[in-house]
């Protein structure tokens, strides 16, 4: 029997998003993650193209975690003939379920709006996938516990290991014909507010390593002081603080921080509105899986009671019409869609508004445009002038920085045959390549999108 692995880099190679890596072997074909491309239009257009591999021949999908750029392409995989299992930890699949349903709803609404308002080149505009497609996908989910080796075939087994980043997130280790393949997924922070520090791999013959912040160190910031100052300024201006937020983890971290600031009398009892249907559902995941995070149920309940959770779109407009200074946390984190657009549509042209960006802003997103000082942003077919003050807190990122990534690799006892840098923009990946070579003297490769690497074992 031939002992080889063909690795197909179908996403997150040379770019941050669209995570998809196919391991083709003589026994089984395994897809690691199945995410959507986000950001630049040329990347987003790739989502509409069928994969360059035989999708019907894929036996199983293993998920590192539930973010859209790691799970959002799954319904399209089914449309191309996939009929296997989709495996992840229980919280990862709970998050993926929420994200796929929400994403399908947004795709359907966006297509309907584009057709109604006639701001589409396509006649008619079609949703990327529908709610029915999402439900067909969720049926294939199978949860597995972390730390246990699970056999796929006689010569292939895998296990999930706790990785911080978001609830349920893991790195994936595979033993294939006696060689250890490690997919880092997204690596979390050592001192996260809500999550334990990531575990570390101890062996890796082939390491597939994220490099999102491969060229950066998170600034050492007193987040509580910065947040309280921004909130006090907002109140002084009689304005609104809008925080575009990822529904998974970032929203819950912000809720926790704001609750802590209020408890410590560092901010007044300013109204806080959480407008993220998906974020509300993720809060339930925290409740269901207490062993996956550090929050006590007492703190969880207190922080939930401290905020106003918006249930309906009608309440979104009531919040906009509310004349009090307030904090609004709404999806999406990179301002690519979601409820935050409605608030920006009404409030971004007011100098009393502050927009606070609190996570990674991918190239080509409105969040990146705002961060880089755009004087206007375009959405829903129109341009909106940016008169609001734009602020950033980079140290709230759920991604480890260069030091965190190097430390995560430090427990590997052997010398990997190759380290493939993925999930990073070119500058970040190249800087990290040099740093790994200088620190560990390992061989490092930066694959490009659609590259195929044949590894003879």
| Level-2 CATH architecture of the largest domain | 4-Layer Sandwich
* CATH homology-level superfamily of the largest domain: Ribonuclease Z/Hydroxyacylglutathione hydrolase-like
End-to-end separation: 11 Å
Continuous helix count: 14
Strand content: 15-25%
Q: Secondary-structure map with pairings?
A:
Elements (H helix, E strand, L loop, with lengths): L3 E8 L8 E5 L4 E4 L8 H6 L13 E3 L5 H4 L2 H6 L5 E4 L1 H28 L13 H8 L2 E3 L6 E2 L4 E7 L7 E7 L2 E5 L22 E5 L12 H14 L3 E5 L5 H14 L8 E4 L1 H12 L8 H9 L2 E2 L3 H9 L4 E5 L9 H8 L6 E4 L8 H6 L4 E4 L2 E4 L3 E4 L9 H7 L9 E5 L3 H15 L3 E2 L6 E5 L1
Parallel strand pairs: 3-4, 4-5, 5-6, 10-11, 11-20, 12-15, 12-16, 13-14, 13-15, 16-19, 20-21
Antiparallel strand pairs: 1-2, 1-22, 2-3, 7-8, 8-9, 9-10, 17-18
Helix pairs in contact: 4-5, 4-8, 7-9
What attributes characterize this protein structure?
457 residues; alpha/beta; Metallo-beta-lactamase, Chain A; Rossmann fold; 2 domains
Can you characterise this structure?
- The chain has 457 residues and is an alpha/beta fold.
- The protein has helices at residues 41-46, 68-71, 74-79, 90-117, 131-138, 223-236, 250-263, 277-288, 297-305, 313-321, 340-347, 366-371, 402-408, 426-440; strands at 4-11, 20-24, 29-32, 60-62, 85-88, 141-143, 150-151, 156-162, 170-176, 179-183, 206-210, 240-244, 272-275, 308-309, 326-330, 354-357, 376-379, 382-385, 389-392, 418-422, 444-445, 452-456.
- It folds into 2 domains: 4-216 and 398-456, Metallo-beta-lactamase, Chain A, CATH 3.60.15; 223-396, Rossmann fold (3-Layer(aba) Sandwich).
- The protein is built from 14 helices and 22 strands.
- Strands 6-5-4-3-2-1-22 form a 7-stranded mixed β-sheet.
- The chain is globular, with a radius of gyration of 22 Å.
- The mean pLDDT is 94.
């Amino acid at each position: 029997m031939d002992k080889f692995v063909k690795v197909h880099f179908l996403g997150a190679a040379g770019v941050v998003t669209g995570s998809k890596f196919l391991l083709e072997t003589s026994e089984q074909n395994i897809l690691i993650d199945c995410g959507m491309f986000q950001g630049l239009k040329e990347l987003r257009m790739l989502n509409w193209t069928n994969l360059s591999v035989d999708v019907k021949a894929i036996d199983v999908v293993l998920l590192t975690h539930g973010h859209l750029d790691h799970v959002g392409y799954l319904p399209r995989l089914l449309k191309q003939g996939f009929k296997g299992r989709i495996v992840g930890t229980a919280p990862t699949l709970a998050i993926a379920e929420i994200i796929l349903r929400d994403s399908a709803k947004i795709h359907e609404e966006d297509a309907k709006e584009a057709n109604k308002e006639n701001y589409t080149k396509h006649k008619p505009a079609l949703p990327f996938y529908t709610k029915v497609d999402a439900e067909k996908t969720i049926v294939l989910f199978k949860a597995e516990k972390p730390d246990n080796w699970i056999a796929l075939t006689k010569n292939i087994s895998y296990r999930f290991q706790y990785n911080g980043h978001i609830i349920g997130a893991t790195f994936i280790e595979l033993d294939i014909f006696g060689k250890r393949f490690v997919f880092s997924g997204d690596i979390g922070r050592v001192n996260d507010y809500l999550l334990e520090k990531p575990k570390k791999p101890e062996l890796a013959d082939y390491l597939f390593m994220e490099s999102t912040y491969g060229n950066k160190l998170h600034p050492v910031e007193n987040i509580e002081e910065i947040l309280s100052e921004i909130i006090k300024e907002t109140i002084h201006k009689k304005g609104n603080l809008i925080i575009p937020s990822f529904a998974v983890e970032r929203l819950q971290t912000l809720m926790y921080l704001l609750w802590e600031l209020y408890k410590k009398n560092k901010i007044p009892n300013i109204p806080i509105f959480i407008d993220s249907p998906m974020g509300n559902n993720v809060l339930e995941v925290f409740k269901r899986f207490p062993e996956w995070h550090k929050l006590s149920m007492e703190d969880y309940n207190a922080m939930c009671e401290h905020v106003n959770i918006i249930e309906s779109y009608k309440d979104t407009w009531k919040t906009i019409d509310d004349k009090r200074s307030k904090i609004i946390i709404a999806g999406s984190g990179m301002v690519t869609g979601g409820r935050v657009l409605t608030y920006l549509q009404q409030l971004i042209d007011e100098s009393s508004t502050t927009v606070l960006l609190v996570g990674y802003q991918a190239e080509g997103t409105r969040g990146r445009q705002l961060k880089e000082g755009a004087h206007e942003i375009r959405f829903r077919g129109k341009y909106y002038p940016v008169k609001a003050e734009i602020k950033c807190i980079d140290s709230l990122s759920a991604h480890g920085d260069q030091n965190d990534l190097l430390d995560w690799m430090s427990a590997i006892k052997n010398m990997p045959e190759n380290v493939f840098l993925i999930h990073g923009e070119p500058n970040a990946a190249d800087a990290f390549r040099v740093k790994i070579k200088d620190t560990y003297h390992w061989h490092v490769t930066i694959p490009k999108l659609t590259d195929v690497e044949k590894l003879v074992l």
